[in-house]
Specification:
heterodimer; A: alpha/beta; Four Helix Bundle (Hemerythrin (Met), subunit A); Rossmann fold; 434 Repressor (Amino-terminal Domain); 3 domains; eight-stranded mixed sheet; 8 strands; B: alpha/beta; 11 helices; about 15% strand; disordered N terminus
Chain lengths: ~450, ~300
């Protein structure tokens, strides 16, 4: 997300940086550019207005005009203001002092409430809790069935009184049910509803007062436009929302809705949904997102994520090799296997500082392509993997046959490997080593790895 | 939900009146509160259009055009400018074929492939469309090619029962292209009037999932040359500027023939559809203004804009 906003701001800041001194005039121009970029990113018009005013005020207060590096200063101020709007740190899920903790999922239709409920259940289960998923959407056909299937996939308990029951009753009964089944967290999946539908909003209010939830989580998708403020405002007026979960962050939405939602509800964004699989739910870190918006990369969460899955020793070895540029196809293979464990590749790569700049626009990572690449590398002899230079025409033919691919696929992979090696070398020189503009790896054939 | 039948424009006004009152009030305020055209009128107009999700670029073009027109025609009264704006918007929305043409050669069914991102309202739109077509006496087959999302097949099955339409389905996790092929086969064999194929929601950025859609389109065409006759992109009216990216990517992969704009009964303006029509020339074919069957309406640019600014 925020990719385009990021690019846009980078342009702005490059212009500012290029100019030795910041004048009243180019300061105004810069702010106008930032304003347009935010609007294009779907941040609400009024929110942008407020934000720009805040930046301007902060900028004036800090005497940007006389600063030695005025551009850097503006970047710093915009960053600070972004963090200020989005909250200083990640707000974890609130748990009840004595069980059960009750999490109530609410939102418009089609935001991903049911899927997110399943993701929360998976996350809580991993932390040693016993969640109970409760199906209270009696309106959308097969919604309860969907929740049951999701519960099955998540390996957690589920409960519902069915489509003919009153959803309020279902939610109330869930309390006793949780006790009986020894569950300590209840996740209520309510029906999607329009904020202008008085009857449906009345129902959700009834559920709220009947169960007194620990958290009321507003599930909203990141692709929303200007109207995000209206629906969030209405929901917040009817229910005391305690947090926001932003879904579909794995697309290319610029995600300005995030800023809008926080501004109008005052609620922290607690989690972001980053994929279709049930483990694709990440804690939201405002500081890191602000870094990401400004092109500083989300290296912290990359490292955290890597620590979860990557063999530490191997990671160190990799780093060492990368620095010395003795990195070969065997490392490439190992690296791919580690990376696969970490989830969406594109997501991951974006977290690396400087990577956003090196990546050609529209580049996407396809997990399936990894399988081909893996097959190709496996079809090489260990010696070939360590000395890719010796792989000549006849070796390529053998490798292609062995891996069930074609010679062009093998060529592609080798090319990508070389490019990646170069890029890693460059990266190791530090995030400031920018890649040449518009020249990244171009090929993305069947074996294209896009590194 | 009101069950009484209203005419198309009536229904639209009834629905959109509520939906659009925000935009309408705003526009009216600008044009009536300031009878004389000044810079502030253009600034307010910019705000209204951006808040309507038309996007910065489309908004700027329209505002610039309005400035030009004001100068050229020496307009002084903002009410006159308002009429020009109405024309401009209608002019933007008008091009293209806005109808779903339920005709195909001979006995073969008219095949519609329904695509879109997750949660846009594909299955609900198909359910309503099936009910509508059945009410018109057409025989309908539904193809349950969303084999990915949990219980998606069940959801469509319930709609098929409500509509009295036949449904072709496989087990969860089956190859969606195989379902689509079988559905086409069944629709042809039964000499059905229409076949509507549901697909799993997918983000337009997922390359392999977009490839999967291409394959579905291909195999349908293999079974019945010329099919699918329509590819409908379902778009949530609350979608912001990303809607344009969605339209671009889906159009690149498939022969998208039109947009179904859903959830217009909230407060969202659906302005991104204007940007899509303007930049890509994909016409809006259907609009969803509520949950009742009658709330799925064919699109008409002139009436749409009329109802918008009434």
């Amino acid at each position: 997300m925020f990719e385009s906003l990021n690019k846009r701001l980078e342009e702005v800041f490059k212009n500012i940086r290029g100019q030795g001194k910041l004048t009243e005039k180019n300061m105004k121009e810069s702010l106008q550019e930032i304003r347009m970029a935010l609007l294009e990113a779907d941040v609400n018009y009024k929110v942008v207005k407020g934000f720009i005013a805040d930046v301007q005020e902060a900028a004036t207060g800090q005497k940007v005009l006389d600063a030695v590096h005025p551009g850097q200063m503006i970047v710093k101020i915009v960053h600070e203001e972004l963090v200020k709007v989005m909250g200083e740190k990640n707000e974890p899920l609130r748990m009840a002092d004595s069980p059960p903790t009750i999490l109530m999922m609410v939102g418009l239709q089609g935001q991903g409430k049911t899927t997110t409920a399943g993701k929360l259940a998976v996350m809580l289960k991993k932390k040693g809790h016993r969640p109970l998923l409760v199906g209270a959407d009696v309106y959308r056909p097969a919604a309860i069935k969907q929740l049951e299937v999701v519960a099955g996939q998540a390996g957690v308990e589920s409960f519902s009184l069915g489509e003919n029951a009153n959803p309020v009753d279902t939610c109330v009964m869930a309390g006793g049910e949780a006790q009986m089944r020894n569950c300590d967290v209840i996740i209520l999946d309510t029906a999607g509803r329009l904020h202008v539908d008085a009857e449906m909003m009345g129902e959700v209010r009834q559920i709220h007062s009947a169960v007194n939830p620990t958290e009321i989580l507003f599930v909203a998708n990141a692709m929303q436009g200007q109207d995000a403020v209206n629906s969030a405002k209405e929901f917040h007026a009817v229910l005391p929302l305690t947090g926001v979960i932003l879904t579909q962050m794995d697309g290319d939405a610029r995600g300005g809705a995030a800023l809008s939602l926080i501004s109008v509800t005052g609620c922290p964004i607690k989690f972001v949904g980053t994929g279709e699989k049930l483990d694709a739910l990440d804690a939201f870190h405002p500081q890191r997102l602000a870094d990401q918006i400004l092109g500083m990369g989300d290296i912290v969460s990359l490292v955290e994520k890597a620590q979860e899955v990557v063999d530490q020793e191997q990671a160190l070895k990799f780093q060492e090799k990368a620095r010395k540029a003795t990195w070969d196809l065997e490392d490439f293979l190992q690296q791919m296997q580690q990376v696969k464990k970490m989830g969406s590749l594109g997501d991951l790569v974006k977290k690396i500082p400087g990577m956003n700049k090196m990546m050609p626009k529209g580049m996407d990572f396809d997990e399936d392509e990894l399988k081909y690449a893996e097959a190709i590398v496996y079809s090489m002899t260990p010696y070939e993997r360590r000395h890719p230079k010796i792989i000549n025409g006849s070796r390529r033919r053998r490798i292609a046959t062995g891996s069930g691919t074609s010679v062009p696929d093998v060529n592609h992979l080798l090319k990508d490997f070389q490019k990646m090696k170069k890029m890693i070398k460059k990266m190791m020189k530090g995030p400031k080593g920018r890649g040449p503009k518009g020249r990244g790896p171009q090929g993305l054939g069947p074996a294209g790895l896009g590194f | 939900m009101t069950e009484k039948k209203a005419g198309f424009l009536g229904r639209l006004r009834e629905r959109l009146g509520k939906t659009r009152s925000g935009l309408l009030d705003n526009v009216k305020r600008v044009f009536s509160g300031r009878p004389r055209i000044g810079e502030d009128v253009f600034e307010d107009l910019e705000e209204i259009l951006i808040e309507g999700d038309l996007g910065v670029e489309t908004t700027m073009t329209i505002v610039e055009d309005m400035r030009q027109v004001t100068k050229e025609r020496k307009l002084e009264n903002s009410a006159d400018l308002f009429r020009v704006l109405e024309e401009e918007l209608a002019g933007l929305l008008e091009p293209g074929d806005h109808a779903l043409n339920w005709t195909s050669s001979g006995d073969d069914p008219h095949v519609v492939l329904v695509v879109g991102v997750n949660g846009a309202g594909k299955t609900t739109t198909i359910g309503k469309l099936a009910q509508k077509l059945r009410a018109e006496g057409k025989s309908v087959v539904l193809g349950a090619a969303d084999t990915f999302r949990a219980a998606a097949v069940e959801q469509l099955t319930i709609w098929s029962e409500r509509a009295g339409a036949a449904i072709v389905k496989h087990a969860d996790g089956a190859d969606p292209a195989a379902v689509a092929y079988d559905a086409t086969d069944a629709a042809v064999a039964r000499k059905a009037d229409c076949l509507i194929i549901d697909t799993a929601g997918r983000l337009h950025t997922k390359v392999n999932l977009m490839e999967e859609l291409k394959k579905i389109q291909r195999v349908v065409g293999k079974r019945l040359p010329g099919a699918p006759h329509d590819v409908l992109l379902v778009l949530d009216a609350t979608t912001g500027q990303n809607g344009l990216q969605q339209a671009i990517q889906f159009t690149e992969a498939l022969n998208v023939t039109g947009i179904a704009l859903t959830k217009l009964d909230g407060t969202a303006k659906g302005g991104i559809a204007v940007a899509i029509q303007k930049q890509l020339g994909i016409p809006i074919k259907l609009i969803g203004v509520g949950e009742a069957v009658d709330d799925l309406q064919p699109f008409n640019a002139r009436e749409f804009v009329e109802a918008l600014f009434e």
